[in-house]
Amino acid sequence: MxxxxxxxxxxxxxxxxxxxxxxxxxxxxxxxxxRSMDQCDTACGxxxxxxxxxxxxxxxxxxxxxxxGSSEGIRHDDVLGYFHGTFAGYSEEHRMTSAxxxxxxxxxxxxxxxxxxxxxxxxxxxxxxxxxxxxxxCHTRDDIRSCAGSCYQPVDLSGALRELLSRKGSYAVVAxxxxxxxxxxxxxxxxxxxPRIRFIIGLVCGQMKSRHFVDYLIKKxxxxxxxxxxxxxxxxxDRPASDFAFxxxxxxxxxxxAGWSExxxxxxxxxxxxxxxxxxxxxxxxxCADATFMDAWLPEYVLDPRGHSLxxxxxxxxxxxxxxxxxxxxxxxxPIVVEKVCESQLDAIHQKRTxxxxxxxxxxxxxxxxxxxxxxxxxxxxxxxxxxxxxRIRSITQHGIASDxxxxxxxxxxxxxxxxxANKLLMAARLVRQMVRGEHFE
Length: 442
Prior knowledge:
This protein has 442 residues and is an alpha+beta fold. It is built from 15 helices and 15 strands. It has helices at 10-14, 46-49, 60-68, 103-114, 141-146, 158-166, 177-189, 211-220, 260-269, 299-302, 316-329, 338-343, 346-362, 381-397, 405-437, and strands spanning 22-25, 30-33, 75-77, 81-83, 85-90, 119-125, 133-138, 171-175, 197-203, 229-234, 245-249, 255-259, 291-295, 309-313, 332-335. The longest helix has 33 residues, at 405-437. The protein is globular, with a radius of gyration of 21 Å.
């Protein structure tokens, strides 16, 4: 089941026998459970009941419908899921030290100060982790601020979730779509967990990279050894918000930057070092979360390097808190239409609602994979080619750099060239068609 594991660790945290541990795999570049149900003496099946990628478990649409579908005035979109409101904005106090506009950090602090939660379960720097990041329980404003920012590394939730279960009180959990779904399954299966998790705050996700992605960037930059820590969202004042950098902290106070446009964009878009299970996920907007936040990758916002956030709010209680506290604290927050929210994440939607179906159809055993929803659009032959190309690239990079950076880049370039040429031809044909029809284009 390694190809269907995202390494979240929820199965290990909630195993009734405590027989599962999460172990970092240097070969795969992420965390894996120490044993499967087939290797378990009791085989109670609890670990499988909380896994987000077991086909027999409730799917994202079913879970979110049960959570939010009967809420008065709720709206629904095939891609966004259920929602009461969609917003754009930022917190001036938090945006420079946070990802995008800092609304997640502001919201967690607000919930804590209001007494709505006793703490938050967030991802922050962890020098003891093989990926330099881990989940931790935050009980103060400073704790929460120390976790501000993005993390594009695998993290293990098991230890922090065990600690949460051992404490009294209620908490907010910041989670990617797959983790949010797994937490909802766990809350159904384990009554002790339900009062502990008050809110799930989702983050938009297009893919998860293994540790091998950071290893590749370090070698490409010519850095010797491992970094001491990583800032995955170093905002460059002379660049648009979308052209940020990964900043690696080295010894003796030195740093090395890998810029998005210079080093990251191509391997990110072509899905180098992406976990295989990400090819079979159709949830872009963390539909099982009470609210979901993302970057505002839109022309009207992206030129500001400080960043803006977009938010989808599903829980009425959370909506009331956000609107009231935003007015009181002077947070910039304005409604935004659903179409704009979707436009901000077009690449992720294309991957998870178009290419994911093709990846599933090409898999060795599609019947063992979860159901994948599609968008209402016709699958074109070039989509087939794109899925095939990205699938092969992901496959040859899944175990890291076999020899050296240049050899890997040449191999990937060879694989990607036909698709790159075809894509450019398609773009040219589209422009010609618009010119012939007299349509406006940019």
